[in-house]
Amino acid sequence: MTTETAIAAPATATPARRRFAIVWGVLRIAMAGAIIAATVETYRGSAVFWAEQGFTDLVTLNVNFFAYFTIESNLAAAVVLVIGAAFAFGGRPSDPMWFTVLRGSVVTYMAITGVVYNLLLRGLAVTGGGDSSPWTNEVMHMIAPIFLVLDWLLTPGRLELAWRWVWVIISFPILWVTFSLVRGPLVFDQVKQVSTWYPYPFLNPARQDNGFLGVTFWVLVIAAAFTVVAILVVRASRFGARRNEIRELAATQGDTRADASVRIDRE
């Protein structure tokens, strides 16, 4: 059963938390800039390759580029970091629930991006062809995922998430896999000159010994990984979340009563 509890929320954060939030806000902006730079450099390498090869269907090539989960999750991470920095600079004592859910979703996607790349895809071409600087892969598959996890664990203002949000978090990966599998047989791969296009080898039945059975296996494995990480993210949201921040602020101000209410979903 889900209950909602109203608890005290002071209007402003303590000076120490305010300073920490500002410092972390600067780091968020820097990380967002690095992600955007890595994405632009990766796209540039692909675009140069497309031009050199004389590919004519640039619309499909661009759709393919942005259909990679790596690209989508990193761009979403950059947006979340910029919004989070704005909240930090604005002195908000807590994030709105919609942003906490969005952050929890993105940190899940980025964590999986890092794990899957480093276990299954490292050394393989995972974008639209062409060369890009090696640092781009490290930013998008190592540095950014680690930063997003630390951002989730360390920054103040995060609210507690109810367990039902796990289903919201994993809904996007489910839609992405469905889209990729349905679209794959319909798209001609100009780079490899084959009649299908899949963003990653584990989704391509031609790359699996058992065809679609092998694809099904990997989809189930990765779906389980997403679910486990989403559960861990929700669980982590309950450590040092908004309730502890409110207790600290109330103690600092000598106020032990609830004056303003913040609704925190709990199960």
TrEMBL record:
| Entry keyword Transmembrane helix | yes
InterPro entries found in the cross-reference section:
Pr6Pr-like (IPR049713)
Tell me where the transmembrane regions lie. Answer: 20-40, 65-89, 101-119, 139-155, 162-182, 211-234
Q: Does the keyword Heme apply?
A: no
UniProtKB keywords:
Membrane, Transmembrane, Transmembrane helix
Q: Which NCBIfam families match?
A: Pr6Pr (NF038065)
Protein's name according to its UniProt entry? Pr6Pr family membrane protein
